[in-house]
Amino acid sequence: MAESRANVLDGAPPMVERPQSTDTAGEGAGDRLYYGVLWVLGFFVLVVAGLIVLNLALVSRPLFAVEGVWDFVKGDDWDPVTQKFGALPFIYGTLVTSLVAVVVAVPVAIGLALFITQFAPHKLAPFLSTPVEWLAAIPSVVYGLWGLAVLVPWLRTSVEPFLGRAFGFLPFFKGPPIGFGYLAAGLCLAVMILPTVVSVSAEVMKTTPEAQREAALALGATTWESVTWSVMPHSRAGILGASLLGLGRALGETMAVTMLIGNSRNISISLFAPGYSLPAVIANEFAEATDNIHIGALAACGLILFVITFLLNAAARWLVTAVQKGPARVVT
Amino acid sequence: MNALASSAPDSAPAVAAGAAIATPKVEVQKLNVWFAKNHAVKDTSLAVQVHTVLAVIGPSGCGKSTFLRALNRMHDLVPVARVTGKVLVDGQDLYTREVDPVLLRRRVGMVFQRPNPFPTMSIEENVAAGLVLNGISGNHAEVVERSLRKAALWDEVKDRLGHAATSLSGGQQQRLCIARALAIEPEVLLMDEPASALDPIATAKIEELIHELKEHYTIIIVTHSMQQAARVSDHTAFFYMGELVEMGATEQIFTNPKERRTEDYVTGKFG
Predict the structure, then answer these.
(1) What is the value of pTM for the model shown?
(2) ipTM of the complex
(3) How close A11 comes to chain B (CA, Å)?
(4) Which CATH number fits domain A69-325: 3.30.360.10, 3.40.630.30, 1.10.3720.10, 1.10.3470.10?
(5) What is the distance, to the nearest Å, from the Cα of residue B70 to the centroid of all Cα atoms in its chain?
């Protein structure tokens, strides 16, 4: 993303219309003005992001006056009356639901993107990819309603009892089938991030050079092998990037998760259990938070969410470049 | 005349187009290729004898690459392409239902216009790619060395087999692609303007290589360089507007063509 933005900037100056006059000073001034405007616009984004962090930090100061940062992160008490604040259940719930979403969505998305770009008849492909993109246009509160009306009852009566019977020996699938919980929120998030992962992956797959596929085919590869030998190596960095983009979306999703996660301040390894998430606690409590410490605690939750997203993006960037370079530089 | 004699390259006069002395290695009968409504190759018939080099020449867009790609069914992948006619390799038609294009492409190898090594793989992995794809086990290192030697690349890369294939120069990459094609022991090698993206020195190396390879392989090479066709081939086929205008011994095509259009092309009047 940043590269493309940089390219836009690099490419911009030649697009300035050259004045017909021979007044070179005027031309230089025009260029400088244009450049200056772009700089301001570019920095505007940074400034806004910086101000948000600053504001969150300022609002959360009353909390950190009474509670250490580390105590806040690892504490699991949350009681506005006694002014005990610990965000661990929210952090945990946010991470677990997002992880479930990515684990479920990414394989489906890769399969879908491969089918759309490599296997589907050319005339059929748009009929497949367009509905997937529609998924991105559905408001998240509607996803939440769908989750309440369809997903939760289905999980409670069918999926969770089945998983409990079949895989109950795993700690993830223990406990009573409630319906509301990490699994419901995670699955709903999976559907929500699917269009992002599919469309970004498909775009990358489409850029596989035809020569690569032909190389594999000419060596006697089947259609499927030609894909695993050419499209997948070419696209792996892009798919990773797409997955992390999806993960980023899942981390920040508020409404659907708030409606489905159960909103119980609880840390459980079982995915059937209800939990809580950082955005959900902010959305639920901000309206009724009156004292500065409570508000500060909610702002601190926002700050933590910000930090998680930021670290994730940094990791994504690093991973994508590492994968792009490929393994076959110096093997021996 | 027995079959052995006619398989020797110097029995060239006996193996002109359509000669029925020995079963040709590759025989094309009334081949037509359409892309949607564009009739790209028209009613082409020709024969290539074993261990000879056929050069296919003609101006851009004359259908020579399309013709070549029909010989290992690469058009199967293009939804709008339609192929009729027969392509016989050792007397067996490639375009019948029973022929698995995957197995066919093992017997008929292909080298493309631009070097296309697998970019994420090492030199060694690239050469062994065909073996891995076809589930051929055994001593891959030995096959890799043999193939690289045949492609005249071994001495240049033997100390860095684990390096990325993309670290090689364009000419080396193309020879790597030739080694990769040779590793699965094809009988016929199709080359689609293999030197068009290379500099003169790299081109000379590829041409020299073609001379050596024809001892063991039957080669069909598409080229837009008439000099190259004259240097490397035993026979030359001239295509124009999707039609095979003339085919014959290379010397005859360049010195004494029968068709006016061939003469105009080889003397540089158009093209």
Answers:
(1) 0.78
(2) 0.81
(3) 28
(4) 1.10.3720.10
(5) 11
